[in-house]
Design goal:
This protein has 482 residues and is α/β, with parallel strands linked by helices. The chain has 2 domains: 269 residues, 3-Layer(aba) Sandwich (Aldehyde Dehydrogenase, Chain A, domain 1); 182 residues, Aldehyde Dehydrogenase, Chain A, domain 2. It binds nicotinamide-adenine-dinucleotide. Nicotinamide-adenine-dinucleotide binds next to helix 8 and helix 9.
Length: 482
């Protein structure tokens, strides 16, 4: 039967069967058909990967940084030459459209390009004569073994935020990808090995919570990079920190898009639509609440409603599809419950798109809610589906008040022609990634990915110089020559 084979872990330079006997089915969200089985690795499997990483670390950290960066450049070439297959893998196991998958792979490659700059970004500092005849040197050195734990929604990009940079900084790495999208991670492992990273420097352990918990508590793991939902992020942050590890935990979101009365709706509506419904709303930067500042509401909702009705929902690989499936039937059921809850709570359904007949794929018809009250759960909780809530507000002041009450603070955007309003918004909004007439303000990989409030737990963010700091520790050497 198709997809019957259980995937293998990649440990110490070899593909190995997990010791843990259980496995989970991996369906194609567009069809429901099983495409693989993923092992639920346990503590023994994790221990083997961490031991391989620990063993590889001492020699790897002594490989000159320029040589390590050359392996990263070799990886970049492989990612480019296999990008069509990587995109196809993301489309198949995640359910993103081809265009979305292509964009996400491109963003992953961008992170690899940033990693290749390590001979510059790892540089330290030197000060002569801090006292008579005494000099001080600041060095950046690797931590040891870094574990990366990744979510389902960016099967290639988020592992590429982590592994190449951690490796080029001289660490060994253990990736625990989402059990819902394990195939792209296995593909990446192959390309990383081909790029010449020595056995044990990069390891892949498939699995779910048990594998994560084994990594969080393992004495051989020095740092944990995590991206996922809010409850898991809190658990990862608290558990790994309690076990003495450096942690960065990127968490959930509820992103607000403010539309001012002077906004250019011709161009703003497509940007809002793509922010809210692109990737079926399964993006941590998805706009999910529009704050329509009076009197733009009627005009805006009318245009958004027409656009939502026209969205084509269907299989991810179909070029005509605008909104693919969501990741799993349980998630589909959860999103549908949120929609019911919105209706029951008195929000108006301003538009509902059409979804393919229920059956095989995990589709949700997009929904636009109007006249949502800010205190309603659909305006507060992360739905992670194709649902957009419009809240009408009298002023920018009130829009900021509503947005800033959120317990999350990942992204926010304003649509306006008014520079003063945009500046006021950028200055006062309590979110880390801010768009001005940009619906998905995702920073390029040479800037940090800066969630605020409940969207991030830790100090040093993913990507950019923050990530170089995260994957290295500083050493200060004071020297005097007699
Ligand atoms: P998730 O929390 O279900 O899973 C993330 C990882 O944690 C997976 O590898 C999974 O195996 C593991 N995990 C799940 N439950 C666990 C548990 N109880 N104990 C230990 N480990 C566990 O997240 P997801 O559904 O895969 O991803 C979607 C979420 O990720 C959304 O909330 C989204 O906002 C968030 N996300 C955030 C960012 C960001 O930059 N802030 C980026 C992408 C996704």
């Amino acid at each position: 039967m198709a997809g019957e084979a259980v995937l293998e872990n990649y440990v110490g330079g070899a593909w190995v069967r997990a010791v843990a006997p259980d496995a989970l089915d991996v369906p194609d969200p567009s069809t429901g058909a099983r495409i693989a089985r993923v092992p639920r690795s346990g503590a023994t499997d994790v221990d083997a990967a961490v031991a391989a990483a620990r063993a590889a670390f001492p020699a790897w950290r002594d490989v000159p940084v320029a040589e390590r960066a050359r392996r990263v450049l070799a990886l970049r070439e492989r990612l480019e030459s296999h990008s069509t297959e990587l995109v196809a893998s993301v489309v198949r196991e995640n359910g993103k459209t081809v265009e979305e998958a292509r964009g996400s792979v491109r963003r992953g490659i961008e992170a690899v390009e940033f990693a290749a700059a390590a001979p510059t970004t790892m540089q330290g500092a030197f000060l002569e004569d801090v006292s008579a005849g005494v000099d001080t040197t600041l060095l950046r050195q690797p931590l040891g073994v870094v574990a990366g734990i990744t979510p389902f929604n960016f099967p290639v990009m988020i592992p590429l935020w982590m592994a190449p940079l951690a490796l080029v900084c001289g660490n060994a790495f253990v990736l625990k990808p989402s059990e819902r999208v394990p195939l792209s991670a296995a593909f990446l492992a192959r390309l990383i090995a081909e790029a010449g990273f020595p056995p044990g420097t990069f390891n892949l352990v498939h699995g779910d919570a048990a594998a994560v918990d084994a990594l969080l508590t393992h004495p051989g793991v020095d740092a944990v990079s995590f991206v996922g939902s809010a409850p898991t992020a809190r658990h990862v942050y608290a558990t790994a920190a309690a076990h003495g590890k450096r942690v960065q935990a990127l968490s959930g979101a509820k992103n607000h898009l403010i539309v001012m009365p002077d906004a250019d709706l011709e161009r703003s509506v497509p940007a809002i639509l793509s922010s809210a419904f692109g990737q079926s709303g399964e993006r941590c930067l998805a706009g999910s609440v529009v704050l329509a500042v009076d009197p733009v509401g009627d005009r805006l909702v009318e245009r958004l409603a027409a656009a939502v009705r026209a969205l084509r929902v269907g299989p991810a690989a179909d070029g005509a599809t605008a909104v693919g499936p969501v990741i799993r039937p349980e998630h589909q059921a959860r999103v549908l419950r949120w929609i019911e809850e919105g209706e029951a709570g008195g929000a108006e359904v301003a538009a509902r798109g059409a979804a393919p007949a229920p059956g095989d794929g995990f589709y949700v018809a997009p929904v636009l809610f109007d006249r949502v009250r800010p205190e309603m759960a659909i305006a507060q909780e992360e739905i992670f589906g194709p649902v957009l809530a419009v809240v009408r507000v009298p002023s920018l002041e009130e829009a900021l008040r509503v947005a800033n009450r959120s317990r999350f603070g990942n992204a926010a955007a304003i649509f306006t022609k008014d520079g003063k309003a945009a500046r006021e918004f950028a200055h006062r909004i309590e979110a880390g990634m801010v768009g001005v007439n940009v619906g998905v303000p995702a920073p390029a990989a040479y800037f940090p990915f800066v969630g605020w409030k409940g969207s991030f737990y830790g100090d040093l963010h993913a990507t950019g110089r923050d990530a170089v700091e995260f994957y290295t520790r500083k050493k200060v050497v004071t020297t005097r020559w007699f």
